[in-house]
Structure formats: structure tokens, C-alpha cells
Amino acid sequence: MTKTTVAKWDFFEAAFTGPSAGNPHIDVNFEAFFKQNSRVVRVPGFYDGEGTYKVRFMPDNEGDWTFLTQSSAPELDGQTGGFTAGAAGEGNHGPVQVSHQFHFAHADGTPYLAFGTTSYAWTHQTLELQAETLASLKGARFNKMRMGVFPKDYPFNTNEPLYDMYEVDAEGELDFDRPNAEAFRHFENQVGALRDLGIEADIIIFHPYDRWGYCDMSPEQDFRYVAYLAARLSAYRNVWWSLANEYDFLLNTKPMAQWDRYFQIIEENDPYRHLKSIHNGDVNANYDHRKPWVSHVCIQNWDVKRTQEWRDTYGKPVINDEPEYEGDIMLPWGNISAPELVHRYWITLLRGGYAGHGETFMHPDDILWWAKGGPLRGEAWKRIGFMRDLLEEDVKTGLTPIARASNWPWSRVSGATDGEVTYIYLGEHQPIIWAPGLPQEPGDYEVDVIDTWNMTVMPAKIVDAPANHPTRHGAALRQRRPDAAFAVELPGVPNLAIRVRPRR
Amino acid sequence: MTKTTVAKWDFFEAAFTGPSAGNPHIDVNFEAFFKQNSRVVRVPGFYDGEGTYKVRFMPDNEGDWTFLTQSSAPELDGQTGGFTAGAAGEGNHGPVQVSHQFHFAHADGTPYLAFGTTSYAWTHQTLELQAETLASLKGARFNKMRMGVFPKDYPFNTNEPLYDMYEVDAEGELDFDRPNAEAFRHFENQVGALRDLGIEADIIIFHPYDRWGYCDMSPEQDFRYVAYLAARLSAYRNVWWSLANEYDFLLNTKPMAQWDRYFQIIEENDPYRHLKSIHNGDVNANYDHRKPWVSHVCIQNWDVKRTQEWRDTYGKPVINDEPEYEGDIMLPWGNISAPELVHRYWITLLRGGYAGHGETFMHPDDILWWAKGGPLRGEAWKRIGFMRDLLEEDVKTGLTPIARASNWPWSRVSGATDGEVTYIYLGEHQPIIWAPGLPQEPGDYEVDVIDTWNMTVMPAKIVDAPANHPTRHGAALRQRRPDAAFAVELPGVPNLAIRVRPRR
What is the ipTM of this complex? Predict the structure, then answer.
């Protein structure tokens, strides 16, 4: 028999028939051990309904792998098999992991600059609308999608979901001991569709916007749900775990220790250690992202000039996954202008963090991108895509702020470097000449002025850096030292950036 | 002999001939006691050069006043006289004082909403330029001017001053024991010119931008200088005392205790207790404005959404006298766009504070408004004038924030009330419908939409407030309670404000 071949970072799946009586989710343990030479990786399996048990494995190394199952059910125990892991296909760079403390990279070393968007309940809409969402994503440049497992009940989100995530019992109630395999199959298929578009699925496990009872599951049901998700979905290389959207609004029913335990359960059941974080509601209720199971900081906070503060506080990559959304609804987190959202992206990125996108434009059929997907109706997404393309020309590690934000003038303007490239974003500032942050040493630089809104890149006019007039009594050190080896002339309009890199 | 008549809050001046030998500034004490019935007010006099001693008194009550001098010089001692204080003239509302804890009012009760601008060294430029500055002020709506006593040495400020503020000695050096009476006379005349335009003179006593030696005066010289200023200028009703521009940049030569002492010396020599504050450089170096001699908070800070925090910290009126300036110079405190400065004004005012204006546009002859005056070249000043006129239609006390900034949604948008009027400023937010902060009770309201940039006021279209969909698991209180008795429709563009007042 020819062995199955699976590309590295795709996944191998094996299915077995086992008990269907009682509640297999509770009654049956099932796992497999995947081996390559002396290396053994434990992989949890899951019950997929109708007597079928599955195990999925994402190889991270080429070559032959074998497996051996272990189960409390005799017919599932001691099963063996194997497959060959081949080369990763084009565009398959492996899962994203933390890199260089504050940044991300794929497993093959390709830098990953997070440019995410948000559509909480897109997988719960009609199939037509879901297809439209995927088409929108194909035409945009987002590489991460925040999306909930559970449906959403909220203003503009009053429709019933495509699937219940749990089976309906004889009384017509959701049975939170029995995941609906069809619903999860659909969900994971859409995770795969995102993967095929090069988009990470930032999977939100819990959220407070519920009318069906998902928020009222018992701790044991929650724990089984989290383990089930990890078993089903970890083999998808584009999975990120977001424990919650706005976890603090759920503390009334799920105390802090429970959140910690969810993280641990994922660590117990995700052999690949996908990225994990958790998103706050109140700006003063950040989870303690220093806890060891948190891979990166996920927050919502409109005050983006504080980005360095969050890097410092937690010492991990910072993704500000809700710096308010472009839109026009009444809720102020969802009605900033497109220029303002683009502005917040540039400030966040050039202070060493990452920002998230969302759109909340009122619509007669309540098709708001942020929850339901569909078409992108705003103006920010194009500028965000432009920014991504621009940064990906040069950024290899991730952006490091030029200086402490407390150092003049970096509390007011934003600037960052990566290797030989420097970016400065002036935002609401509109000088007609600029030097701070430009190279101290003369050299052959390519210097461009970037209009972040009009998406243009124009060579800068280089001029002598002003020799400072003495600026302060007693401040001898500041006297007559130019800020940089040269300065650039600017047109005196807002929302410009400067890029400096060695001429190639 | 007919008694002199002086309008209330104008001033009476008496001049006497006394010793001119030695150094009268050091050698001669001279003061007067002004009496009305049993009330006695001590008023310090000053030496005005060439053997002339003067004392000035601003009556705050109509009727007859007499005075008796006291001096270490026999010819200045025991002099008597008097005058009659008449009614205040049109537009003379008396000095500005703190009112209702966080606000200001003139002595006659007229509310004073601070709309200040900045021209640090305007009185040190050519007389032609000074006349132009006054003409600009006449055409604008500013009612406060921040201005230094000493000349300024700084980028774009390299010219020699019109007058040295001290006499030049035989070696050609400034003699910091001998104020130049001609220079101070000119300065106070310009304070008077501002008064006649209805503009408060926010007099900056010290600043760190010096090449002439003013920063290196001894403590004793500083103390005499402060007392001299108080004696000369306190009788001008439009005087405010600003101990420094950026005092913290002078701490290397003037330690904190010295700053406290300056405040005390003013209290000892200003019988009218004019407003007193002191302005920081570094945003983390605010003076402790809780000290009893500080009447109001003067700061520079671009982060204007923090305005409530400063009110809370100090419990006094907050004037943010440098939320960055409109301009295009390289220094980021001086190159924000006009829309951004107008935006910061609205945010500051609608969070219960006051903001200051400045313009720093590069100019071939270095005529930058912020230091030298001349013409206003920017676009913000007109919108600031529009805002002042608009607020003065209704505000009687001063604006109180609608809610704690920590309360949803008031960290993101700004809103304030005064009596029956409510203003909401949406800024970068562009909802097409709005209800939060609008009246809870139905009534006959006049509701307008204000375009803060285009300076238009349009009647709002009133619609039903959305009945909230339940928004959160367990948050029963938030269910189906509209935010207000009604909502307004908006055009979905940034920088709008809403005004609600009873229909008249």
C-alpha cells in the first residue's frame, strides 16, 4: 500500500469506527502518538459523530511518520498507521509563532506582520454571504481574521445562526454535552478556506453576546469544549487561540481561575503550541498577559500612542485588536472615520505593535462586516493593504521604536526601525522640514515621502539638517548639534510618513 | 481742588519725587495705604527712574478713597491724597477670578471662558510689528495673551529686543539691580493695550530661552524683580501671573523652593490677588498645582483627552496652554494641522478645561506668531473664535463633563453641560445617529448640529432613540433602555458637535 503523502504543515487525518452509544464525548478517551525516529508527539483525537473518531496531525518535519492510537474503547486502541510528510507547498510557511520577543514569524522564518480584520460571526451567516466574505478577503490584504466559534446576539446581530454548535435534544434544547459535528465541520472548513487565502484564523472561544445558552455552560462543559476545539482544529496551521472577546464581561459566570484553566487545557491538547491570547472589554481590565501561557498581548484600546507602554508592561508582541472600527453606528467603538483608523494603524505599527481592522457601517439588512462579513464598504482597508505591502518590502524582523516614547519627540510622532530601514510617521503633524530619526551618518540612502491616505511614495527632497540654535539656558549639549546627517523637505500636510533605506 | 475720578477696576496713579542717588530700587522702601471707610489696602510703590516714585491702585468699589504713603525716605513718607472711584466703563467687567471651582468669571460676575493665544516676545519686536499684532488681536476673538517680560533667544528668535529690561552699566553689561524703567513702561503700556481690547495679559515672569543673562540673576535679584513687577503691574485689571514658561527647564538654576517663594512674593505685593499659575515643559513635570498660591492649573500637554484627570488631580480650573500649536516647523509641538488644533480645543473644552492657541508657521523673516506676533497666518483661529461665540451664547458658569471620562462612552467622545445647555463633540467619530448624553426627559428642545470646521449650525433631525438590543450576557440592566428621550440623525462625517438647549 502506498503511503499517504501530506505536505509539511498541512495535516494528516485518520478516521476510525468506535462506540456510538452513550455519550462518546464523555465516555471515550481517544488519542494517538505520532512518531518520527525517537520523537513522539501526543495528539488528542475527537468524536466526529455517527461512530466516527478522528485524529489529525500536522507534521513539522518532512519524512516518514507513524502513529499508534490509545483509547478506553478497545476498537480504537492500538491502531497504527503512517504517512510521509513532503515539502511544504507554495505559500505554505507553517504556523505563525512569536519571533524576536515583540514580533511574529512563520515556522519557516518568513516574517509575519499582523494585519488583521474582524468578523465575529461570519461563519454563522448564509452560505452566500460567507462566500462573499471570502471573496472580499481575497481582494484585500488582511492576513488574520478574528472570528467566534459561537453565534452572536447583539445589536445588528439578531438572526439565527446557520448551525447550532451543539446538538438539539428531544426537548428542543441545546445539549451542551454533545457538540454538533456538522457545525464544527463547517467551522473548520472555513478555517481551511482562510488558510488557503493565507489568512490566520484568530479563533474566539468565548464571548458574552449570547441568547442561546453558550455563556451558561458549566465549567466542565466549558473545559470539554475547549479540549474538543483543540483536538479538532490544532492541526490547521493557521489557527490562533483567542480565549475570548471581552473576557471581563464574562467574569460574572466564569471567574479568573477558569480562564487560566482554559489556557492550560489548550496547552494540554494543542501539540503545536499555536499562538494564544485573550481580549479585554474595559480598557482597564487587561488580562495579565505576563502569564506564561499567553503568547502575545491582545487588547482593545483606542489610545494607540500608548503602544510602547503595553510592550513594556507585558514584554510580548502587542496586537491592539480593536483600536475602534471604521463605521457610522452609534456606538463610539464603531464609528471612527477611515482616515482616523489608518492613522491609528500607522501610530501603532510605528510604535512597535500591531493593529486590527473592523468595519461597522449601518446597513438596511444589518450586514456589518465586523460581525457578518459580506462586502467591505469602507475606505481604510485599501490603505491598510498599502501599508502592509510597503512594510513587507523591507521589514524582516518587526518594527522597533526609534526611542523611548518618553524621549523627545517620540511621544508626539512615531518612528521605528528594522535593520537598515527607518520609518517615521508624522500623523497630525505637518512640518515642512524634518530631521529627527533620520540617519546620523551620511550615506547613500533612498528617502521617500509616503502619503498614507493617498497611497503614494515619492522621492524626498534632501536638504541640510538645521543646525540647532541654542534652545535652552544651560542646555549646552543641545547646542548646535543637528538632529541628523540631513533633513527632508515636506509639503506641509498631515498623514505623511518618511521611509529611509540604503539605496540598492 | 476737584478730586480725580477713576473708573472702578481702572487704576489711580500717584507720583512723587524722592531720592535718586545710590540705587533707589534697593535703598528705598515705598508703599501706600489706600482707605475706604475702615478698609485699608496696602499697595507697594515702585521707583520709575529719574527720582520719580509711583504707586498705583485699582479700586474695586465705587466712592471716595484716600491714601497715606509710608517710606524710608522722608520726602516720600506721610504723603496723602485721594480720588473718587466711579462706575466701571462699558466692557470693563473687572479682573478675572476663579469661579465655581473649575472656571473663571470677571469680578462683576460676567463669565469668562478662556480662549487664549500665545506670543511670547511680541513686546520685544519693532513698534510696527507690535502694532500689527494688536491689529490681529482686534480682528480675532482671543481673550488672553501669554507673553514674556524678558526677550527670547530660541530658534526663529535671534533678533535683539526693542529694549533691554535692565539698565546697561558702564561696562556695557546689564545691571540686574536696576530695572530699565523705559522698557517696563513700554511693557505695561502694551498690557494696557490688551486690556483695551478685552484681552487678559498672562504675564510670563521667567523662561529658559535666554542669551542675555536674565536666567542667571541671583535669587535676591529674582525676588526684587518679581516684587517690582507686582508693584508696577498689579493695578492693571487684566494681569495674570504666569511664574514661568517651562519652569522645569530652569530647575538647574532656580530650585523648587525659589519658585514657591516667587509665588509668595506676588501674594505679598499684589493686593488684588490676580490669577497665578506656572507652566511646565516636560509633560511629567507639572508643578504641584494643589499648592495654595496656585489659582489654576496651567500645563502643556498634547494628550487632551486626559483633561478630566487634571481637573481631578488638582481640583482647580485647567488651562492647557500648549496642546501643540498650528504650524509647520520641525519641532512637533509646533506643527499640527489647523483641524487638529481645533479638534483639541473642542475636546478640552467639552471635558471641562480650557485650551491655548499658538501659530508656528515658518516665515522668511522669522515672523512666527507664537513668539513675535504679526499677522495670523493659520486657519484655526477663526474656528476658535466661532467656538467662543457659540459657547458664550449659553454658558453661564463653565462646562462640566457629562460623566466621568471612565464612563462609557465619554472616554471616546466628549460632552459637557452648563445649566440647561448640553454640548457633545464627536471628533473623529462619525455616527449617523446619536443619543448618549441627550436629555433623558422629553421636552421642547432646540437641537443643532455644529460643524466645528466649517462653522455652521444646522437644526438637527430628531428621531426615536434606538431601543437597545440586549447587549451582553447577564447585563439585564442594559436591556431595552434607550440612551435618551430621542436621538439625532447626523451626516456621518467627522468633527461634528451637537448642541441641545430649551427652545426659547
Answer: 0.92
